Amino acid sequence: MANPGDIAACWDIKLADGPHKVLLEHGTTSGKRVIFVDGVEVLRRNWLFRLVGSESFKIGKRAAEIEIISGNLTSFEYVLKIDGKTLKKFIESQVKNTRAWLPNVSGAAHRVVLDIETMDVYVDGEKSDTFGEFTESGVETHFTMSGFSVHISSLSSGNKRKGLLYHLHVDGTKLEPVNDLQ
């Protein structure tokens, strides 16, 4: 686990497969770099002569990179990139290309995420087996959650700029997406 006194940067990120915490230890005299993802050490570099540079690693299945930039004589700036995008740009893209719901099924809270580019569905961080069905009003993506058969409907909004509308249907109840991925 990371030494709290050595942590130079910390990021909390919500991805389709669930929330993640990234910690960076940076020895500003030794150049040491240690990266932790969800409390697990994923990269360690001891005694580097260059204090700046970048380190690549994975967050789940996503490619990530931390860029270390010299600020002034005594400070550094740390930039996290995911899939080649700065964290801010990645989050903007994720908000545009995913929808999330937080349903309560049989007394248990769940997190459902739909990737609208691939139509992959994640339930509590695990990719679900799905099947699609074309209907008169659009497409339904069916899957199971806690033993219940549920589906996500994709319907036209009637407005080109707005695009498709997505709703999660659980036990006869239609749920609107929440802004959970920022």
TrEMBL record:
InterPro entries: FAIM1 (IPR010695), FAIM1_dom_sf (IPR038513). Pfam families: FAIM1 (PF06905). GO terms for biological process: negative regulation of extrinsic apoptotic signaling pathway via death domain receptors. This is Fas apoptotic inhibitory related molecule. It comes from Suberites domuncula (Sponge).
